[in-house]
Fold these 4 entries.
Entry 1:
Amino acid sequence: MALSEFKHFGVPTSKRHKSETYIEGAKVYVTDPESHPYKVEFLRFEADSPLPEAVQTRCHAAFQVESLEQALKGKNVIIEPFDATDACRCAFIMDGDAVVELMEMK
């Protein structure tokens, strides 16, 4: 799997941020990592969020890949591919104890 680019570092938090965006299906509020000087994305989960505990409680690194389908082969997928935006498709894997987000730009 060729990683093309580091995209952001995701950090679960209980603190509200001014510029949060709510993602209804995931029941999570997220900030825009592009607006942070170190590309940090803060994630604040509602108590009944359906996302895996590992995603809700651990930091994650996000990488852009050329092909999400290829990058997921043989990996421990904990969140199946989904359309995060009109331009980006994502999935989450566990690599040992690390949570990793893989992103494919459309």
Note: Residues 3-105 form a domain with the 2,3-Dihydroxybiphenyl 1,2-Dioxygenase; domain 1 fold (CATH 3.10.180.10).
Entry 2:
Amino acid sequence: MADMNLSPLIKVSEVKLIFKSKIKASERLKVKQTLDAYLIFRQYWDEDKIELQEQFKIMLLNQANKILGICTISTGGVTGTVTDPKLIFSTALKANATSIIVAHNHPSGNLKPSSADISFTKKLKEGARLLDLSLLDHIIITTENYYSFADQGEL
């Protein structure tokens, strides 16, 4: 075995994964349908930004479809936001989620998904599959209504 000379100058950061919920497991909300997810997302959306800036959020769920948490992944401009799939998946993995629902708003009020929305959803679905996560839905939110990729058979 090679002689390993460990110098005190070698410093490496220690990484710890911690998830602490402030909500008891028995009190977590359960998502049974798209409307549930939409209404919960809307409660956590910044009303001052929903018609001003596009935001992207993720809902983390356990095996029983109970919500572990909601996280804002990105905030952009009027016509888009840059969303990094690595942030989505690292957040889901850190929370020990088994499935996710993602959502973003369209400040214009138009519920029709853009080609970028469709492409990104396919990319997320494939990434989730590789990580043994389920992408249950991608919801586009406006102040008045929502569009569900899952409900439209596009997931």
Note: Helices lie at 34-43, 85-94, 115-130.
Entry 3:
Amino acid sequence: MATHKGSEGVVKIGSNTIAEVRDWSFTITSDTTEDTTMGDTARSYKPTLTSASGSISAYWDETDSTGQGAMTAGAEVTLNLYPEGDSSGDTYYTGSVIITEEGATAAFDGMVEASYSWTANGSFSSTTVA
């Protein structure tokens, strides 16, 4: 069984690597519809539509125009999340997403940090780097 360190991860908008990423997360969920009928002794369900959403945190880099700069609220981008790196054979998650929130925080004794939230616009699924 393989395990990986978070530091192996890469995040890209299309083919452009996002600079200074600290962490990211996503969740894929599935709606269900009930298909229980008379005579059944327990409720049963069928999967229907899936959805995905997530977030990305980074140290703010105003020079990263094709990465952080592309993640403005309302923008639709192709997001690629690589948990184990982006070498041939590595698994990654990809899909068209809409940036739903962008923000930043700063403290006098810390780094300026950027945060982004997104919702998939269609499927968000795993594939393998060619």
Note: The first strand starts at residue 10 and ends at 13.
Entry 4:
Amino acid sequence: MKIKPLIAITMGDPAGIGPEVIARLHAWPELRRICRPVVLGDPRIFRMILRRLRIPAGVREVTEPGAVRLSANDMAVLVCARVDPKRFRPGSVGAASGRAAVQCIETAVRLALDGTVSAMVTAPVNKEALALAGCPYPGHTELLARLTGTPEAGMLLVAPFGVPNARKRSYLRILPATTHLALNELPRKLTSSKILSAIRLANESARRDFGIAGPRVGVAALNPHGGEGGLFGSEEEKIIGPAVREARRRGLSANGPWPADTLMVRAIRGEFDMVVAMYHDQAMIPVKLVSFGRAVNVTVGLPIIRTSVDHGTAYDIAWKGRADDGSLRSAVRLAVELIRKRKAGEPRSR
């Protein structure tokens, strides 16, 4: 009998929809068929949300994640954060919530690095709450890179699309060269080295995580119509093009830069396995358009496996019984798949 992988699921921001989607995930029959889940957070939060959602399950506090036993009636929670109920306000930004979210992430990384868990799956955090808590990093990607000592990490968005429940699914995979960055800072901070790093990570992830021996990587332009030979901007000629050529010189797959609008269509039609975008929303908009609520965020380049949801804390609906756990289910499924792929080793040819 194969031992199911142990997966750490972090609470995220307790004032957001993280606790609710985790509670709904616990009620999902497939969860315990594919893995052994252990939730990282404050047990009191999960007792509260289970009662509110009327999910017939209890909370069992655990001290040793490796000793988790499967149970449909109990949620196994490793205590790694405490949120004072008197200061806790669902749907509101708070330093205490941000601090608790960071504590859960730090514990999950430690457990993943020492091999106690096979992967970590994260519920959403709020950037403002992280800042109030004194965290100098704007999101999971940057914080995880620091905690694991990874010099180059990237945010890969994996969006399944096509006919639901089909035997073979299609995927749009996009990795932005920059992540949490104000648009007015983009011209200054978008560099050839960042783009080259994103291309390298896309090639590496295609082989290591998705078993694609000869990946086809398309690189997006920054400006409308790919800049039209400098008429609408020079980044394609001065920054992106040189990065693509250097990637090819190093033996990496890189094709472009192509106008972003048509590149996304070509990727959906199957011409590319991976797309390197230039900035956050250039990647997020097509992903959420074709697969919102089912897409997954994967941090690539790390020595551990981390997947996450494709949405934020959604304070406006937090603790109101309206949150959908579809993306969290997808994140758990993909984490299990990545564990299997990395153990299998050799990539397949197309």
Note: The first strand starts at residue 6 and ends at 10.
